[in-house]
Amino acid sequence: MNAITVNSAFEQHFSTAPDITVRAPGRINLIGEHTDYNGGFVLPAAIDKAIWLAAGKRSDGRFAFYALDLNDNYVSDDADTVFQDRHKWANYLLGVISEARKDGLHIGGLNVVFGGDVPLGAGLSSSAALESGTMFILNELFQLGLSRMDIVRLAQRGENNFVGMKCGIMDMFASVISRENTVVRLDCRSLEYEYFPFDAPGYSLVLCDSGVKHTLVDSEYNTRREECEEGVAVLKQYNPGISTLRDVSLELLKQHAAELRPVVFRRCKYVVEEIARVQLACAALQRNDLATLGQLMFQTHDGLNLEYEVSVPEINFLVEKARENPAVLGARMMGGGFGGCTINLVETAGLEDFIETTSAAYLSKYGITLKTYPVKLTAGTSVIS
Question: What are the sequence ranges of the domains in the chain?
Fold first, then answer.
């Protein structure tokens, strides 16, 4: 998929050339899992898997969208009201339009054709890319004067308020704000951010898609949040300045471990240590110490598995295979948990062997054909033409 493909589809579908074409990338998160809702840090980056959107104004005020990969159409009933649609994919575009209008921004009629190569269901945030790309187009076509962070916030509001998924801001942020060959540390409390180099000749990042996604993810996600909040409520008695686990030191947590339910202590310990690991990872990147970064990734996985308890046997198997491979510096589960992908830092010279041996072992163990995605770190959402 590329700009030429979506532009051609736009011309065929609407019998005119698009006014604008935009690339909105998916994302990875190098380290910093389940830290966002605890006021901590994350370390994401945009990747070379993206949604491409071709768009043009229309004079009747209505909205017409064509999902190229799905061969599916949406056309609004009128120009004034934005409703949730039975085409669930259309709600990602309608949501940002709805939120922009709530802010008093003028959004006229719009035609959009989109398609992409962000693997669906792999945790690479195709939905956030679609929302961010749509909001980027609205800003450009209707001269809304929004900053990139304004676009990020509106894209998140579209998913929270219209689609109904109470996600954090990281996915949209990474899709819009990223730079090539860098990761970006986002402070999820203040939304301040800083870029760190990831220009690592001789090393590759590769995602291994387990092909499993357990239905526990939503209910357990809410439970983990509640357990973290329970820990904060207890610890706040000893330091009123504590509002999230971001404010908790490991020493304070251990001092009051007996006052916490064992499961709550484990959850809090993981989060406090993971917030620290993000900072250590940034320091390692600054000195180009990829070996330390890899060890931090393994530590994150062990915490996610044993303390936060959001991993599954299939994911653990993939990480253990990575740990056994001398070409792998680090590996961990990526995302909310209970399935999805592992992210692996691998010597490029050993990448082909890593993929072959891991795929063969996974097929033998689980009967699942492993999908693998080597990724490069790219710039965020941008106008192509």
Answer: 3-197+379-383, 203-375
